[in-house]
Design goal:
Length: about 325
């Protein structure tokens, strides 16, 4: 296929990148594929997590998207969270989960969370409308783990990923909680190695088979491209974490008493999420996101300037963007 260029617009940045042309199936499929994406709702931190998730599910049912996916940091598997999970299960279509690092807080195992959410496995694949979707688990523990939350994809999962890529001729989109392109800022520790597996698949196929890898975790809003693979970073549905040096009571003393971690965050007034549309006739992939505002002072009103917080990606938004050949 001939190499073309397209323009990517991401929020106010107006960034532009060039990629290879869209796969051949783009010219043969009539109906667009649409899926809803949300991440980092953090039921176990936010006082209004149920309301945020309800807004997402209602919007996705009204939009009649083909499926929904949450990219992790959803909720731990305890009975008190059953009403939250019930809201999720109210979507009238397929629902897919990705494991986040906080989904095992409180001593729960990944196996317990997988079972409670009714996931097929920690990592798995599914097909929809001629596209293969691969869900990865970025929470493996490396041999040299130095503490904190593990953020690694181990050898057994790498071998499975390679095999899944080898046995398909379909275009591929990947979902993972921690980004594969922010290794030094809390992303998958061996993200470069995993990107290499994706890039090798493209090289062996002689085309851009792996199109994109969506992630959450970082509570930021941007899209980056590395070696012809798009890496959209989906913002949290709920907040940005600023930590103890910048704590501020955002709602009320009563809310803070029951939900003591909120004061370490800068919440978003409305829940953030988006709809991804893959239009096989026009050869485009696009995001229709939601914009909000901060509850209380912004991060740069708390003692550090905008450069410190990387304000270009720290927004109360899931920005609209579009990729077109």
């Amino acid at each position: 296929m001939k190499r073309r260029q397209f323009i990517k617009r991401v929020g106010a940045t107006g960034a532009s990148v060039a990629l290879t042309s869209w796969p051949v199936w783009a010219q043969n499929s009539k109906e667009p594929l649409r899926f809803g994406v949300i991440t980092d709702v953090h039921k176990d931190i936010m006082h209004d997590a149920n309301e945020r998730l309800t807004a997402f599910i209602q919007a996705m049912n009204e939009a009649k998207v083909d499926f929904i996916v949450q990219l992790g940091d959803f909720c731990v598997p305890k009975e008190a969270n059953q009403s939250f999970l019930d809201i999720w299960n109210g979507f009238q279509g397929p629902r897919y989960h990705v494991l986040g690092n906080h989904d095992t807080d409180g001593g729960f195992s990944r196996g317990q969370t997988v079972a409670w959410w009714k996931m097929p496995s920690r990592y798995y694949a599914f097909e929809q409308s001629g596209i293969k979707f691969i869900v990865l688990d970025g929470n493996d523990r490396p041999e040299n783990h130095a503490g904190g939350y593990p953020r690694f994809i181990a050898e057994d999962q790498q071998q499975w990923l390679s095999a899944e890529l080898e046995k398909t001729d379909l275009p591929v989109i990947v979902f993972v909680h921690q980004s594969l392109e922010r290794e030094d800022r809390g992303g998958v520790q061996n993200g470069g190695e995993i990107r290499g597996i994706l890039e090798k698949a493209n090289a062996l196929a002689g085309k851009r088979q792996v199109i994109a890898c969506f992630s959450g975790h970082h509570h930021r809003d941007y899209v980056r491209t590395l070696n012809d693979i798009v890496y959209p970073q989906i913002n949290s549905a709920s907040y940005f974490w600023v930590g103890g040096d910048y704590q501020h009571i955002r709602y009320s003393e009563q809310v803070d008493k029951k939900h003591p971690y909120i004061k370490y965050t800068v919440p978003y007034k409305e829940p953030l999420f988006g709809i991804v549309t893959i239009d096989r006739v026009n050869g485009t992939m696009s995001m229709q996101g939601r914009r909000s505002s901060f509850v209380g002072p912004s991060p740069w009103d708390l003692g550090q300037d905008r450069a410190y917080w990387d304000a270009a990606t720290l927004t109360a938004d899931v920005s609209d963007w579009s990729l077109k050949v």
